[in-house]
Design a protein that fits this description.
This protein has 571 residues and is an alpha+beta fold. The protein has 15 helices and 31 strands. The protein has three domains: 270 residues, BirA Bifunctional Protein, domain 2 (2-Layer Sandwich); 128 residues, YbaK protein (Alpha-Beta Complex); 99 residues, Anticodon-binding domain (Rossmann fold), CATH 3.40.50. The strands form eight sheets. Strands 3, 7, 8, 9, 10, 11, 12, 21 and 24 form a nine-stranded mixed sheet that branches. The chain has a five-stranded mixed sheet with strand order 16-14-15-17-20. A hairpin with a 2-residue loop joins strand 14 and strand 15. The structure holds one RNA strand of 78 nucleotides.
Length: 571
RNA sequence: CGGGGCGUAGCGCAGCCUGGUUAGCGCGCCUGCCUUGGGAGCAGGAGGUCGUAGGUUCGAAUCCUACCGCCCCGACCA
């Protein structure tokens, strides 16, 4: 491709709308343009990078035995009503009516559609296992789209769905996808971790997220420094402490006046204690029903854990009014002793002695409180957020928290959708069984953004070779010089003949502009033909990643460059 | 949905508080000259419903009201 002909509007300055680096660089490098919030046009170079990711994904999915198909974006509401998701999915599902007033929606994901297809077409265990995937634009009406392609409303996703005869076979399918994903992200040249993720009602370790490690990541992951343990912070388990059930050391409970002291900090300061000696009582609404949750004063509740414990589909912290309506106590003075609603406690509370809680009375707290003696709870479980000071739940080693961008998620679905939609096959014993399913997603456009988050410098993008829209860019450093121009054209021709994806910067611009643009675009190899060529007949090759330079003759260029490119590709 | 910020040429911004002729600057763009190894220089030029609507006023980019759009934070700790 010739630079003079491609639509590649680079910007010198940072657009005001972009804050995170990948967003800024993709706008500056002329990869994307925004149409409206969370919705972007992909310009030729942006699309080229997207296509690179898609191709790697496609190859690895095919290698893993999955088949590509394409499902509709517009979906009838009836299908979503079958699984109850039409009501449950919420405002992220963009709904509309067609001219016949039929309720429809734009597909944010395709479990319903694929399950409908499979239940119509697959009837025998002999036709299984089956793994079907597509690469397609999805629409999710996100609460707050942000960071360019990192969290758009419209984005490109690869989604795959597996169908198996049994749980055991579904696990095989799951593991295959796990392996395929590792290969995909390795081939993309990304630094990533597969982490255990919340698997909701399915349980077990049957959900993994693939996280690209980058500071701008919206997720926090917990990684053990000594073993292989890695999990999403939402999921990360805490070792249950040895509970001390003896009554030794318990002091009598006392009621104290704490006028106006509502916040943990204020109560602690007033009573001259540390926050770890206090137990806070938070009221959550679990599917609308109030539940009090006890955690140590300096801890934070992990809502996903709470949700799983309660088997609720939705938990949210109650506001002041909801708390008062449920308990008759103003926030700040709640406690488990004599409270009128359900109570669950974090496991850590079981090991605490003589702690402080609210007295369920305005301006009062209780001190020297002990669980078991002064109150009981419905359940004791791991409910709090992991901190960097907690030991690894696997080996007890030290943990580190780090940020990650979720680029892939694999999930065992079981029979959730097949049962809801009566998607069944006839097994070898003649009986009818629901398909055991799994689903596997990769955010294609997010992979591109994540790659840039992880690979850039102050000059611009530094694409890993497998994702680069072009592998090389030839800079004709003096378009008015015939010998140089002839050499640039020759180099361009010979590289193209070899299949090296090359952009020829044939614009009549000064060298400085060409250097800046080449750096900004992040093309892995920059070939410069200019003064050095006039003098000695040499072409300079510069590697974007580290600035490594070498000078070669025009004749040697194709072979040497090809070897350099090959050396950059892993997997 | 709550909070904050912004909306003036393709991009980045100034002007607005304290209303007043023709709305500025840098980059980019067009023409010409010149120049060619890290976003050169000179000269000339094109490009604006100042987000939209309404109001106040002799007069509005500027003041007031409503709406629209965009960005950021939050929607978790009593």
């Amino acid at each position: 491709m010739r630079y003079s002909q491609i639509l590649l509007p680079t910007l010198k300055e940072n657009p005001a709308e972009a804050e995170v680096i990948s967003h800024r660089l993709m706008l500056r490098a002329g990869f994307i343009r925004k149409l409206t919030s969370g919705v972007y046009s992909y310009l030729p170079l942006g699309l080229a990078a997207i296509r690179k990711v898609e191709q790697i994904v496609r190859e690895e999915m095919n290698r893993a035995g999955a088949q590509e198909l394409a499902l509709p974006i517009v979906q009838p509401a009836d299908l979503w009503k079958e699984t109850g998701r039409y009501e449950k999915y919420g405002p992220e599902l963009l709904r509309f009516r067609d001219r016949h007033d039929r309720e429809s929606c734009l597909g944010p994901t395709h479990e319903e559609v694929i399950t409908d297809l499979v239940r119509r077409e697959i009837h025998s265990y002999r036709e299984l296992p089956l793994n079907l995937y597509q690469i397609q634009t999805k629409f999710r009406d996100e609460i707050r789209p942000r960071f360019g392609l990192m969290r758009g409303r419209e984005f490109i996703m690869k989604d795959a769905y597996s169908f198996d005869v049994s749980d055991a076979m579904a696990e095989v399918a799951y593991k295959k996808m796990h392996e395929a994903y590792k290969r995909i992200f390795t081939r993309c040249g990304l630094e990533f971790r597969a982490v255990e993720a919340d698997s909701g009602t399915i349980g077990g370790s049957f959900s993994h997220e693939f996280m690209v490690l980058a500071k701008t990541g919206e997720d926090t992951i917990v990684v053990c420094k000594e073993c292989d343990y890695a999990a999403n912070l939402e999921k990360a388990a805490i070792r249950s402490p040895a509970a001390d059930s003896s009554l030794a050391g318990m002091q009598p409970m006392l009621k104290v006046e704490t006028p106006g002291k509502r916040k943990v900090d204020a109560v602690c300061e007033f009573l001259k204690i540390v926050a770890s000696k206090l137990v806070k009582t938070l009221v959550y609404l679990a599917d609308g029903q109030p539940v009090a949750v006890l955690v140590r004063g300096d801890r934070e509740v992990q809502e996903v854990k709470l949700k799983n414990l309660l088997g609720a589909t939705d938990v949210e912290l109650a506001d002041d009014k909801q708390v008062f309506d449920a308990t008759g106590v103003p926030t700040g003075y709640l406690g488990p002793v004599g409270i009128a609603i359900r109570v669950v406690a974090d496991q850590e509370i079981a090991g605490m002695r003589n702690f402080v809680v609210g007295a369920n009375e305005k301006n009062h707290h209780l001190t020297q409180v002990n669980m078991g003696r002064d109150f009981t709870v419905e359940a004791v479980a791991d409910l709090r957020k992991v901190t960097p000071d907690d030991p690894c739940p696997c080996c007890g080693g030290p943990l580190a928290l780090t940020e990650g961008i979720e680029v892939g998620h694999i999930f065992k679905l079981g029979t959730k959708y097949s049962e809801a939609m009566q998607a069944v096959f006839q097994d070898s014993d003649g009986g009818e069984k629901p398909f055991v399913m799994g689903c596997y997603g990769i955010g294609i456009t997010r992979v591109v953004a994540a790659a840039i988050e992880q690979n850039h410098d102050q000059h611009g993008i530094i694409f890993p070779v497998p994702l680069a829209p072009f592998q090389a860019i030839i800079l004709n450093l003096d378009c008015k010089d015939e010998a140089i121009t002839r050499a640039a054209e020759e180099a361009y021709g010979s590289l193209q003949a070899l299949g090296v994806e090359t952009l020829l910067d044939d614009r009549d611009e000064r060298p400085g502009s060409k250097f800046k643009d080449a750096d900004l675009l992040g093309i892995p190899f920059r070939l410069m033909i200019g003064k050095r060529f006039s003098k000695d007949g040499l072409v300079e090759i510069r590697r974007r990643r580290d600035g490594f330079m070498e000078e070669v003759s025009l004749g040697d260029l194709p072979g040497i460059l090809q070897a350099r490119i090959a050396a950059e590709i892993s997997g």
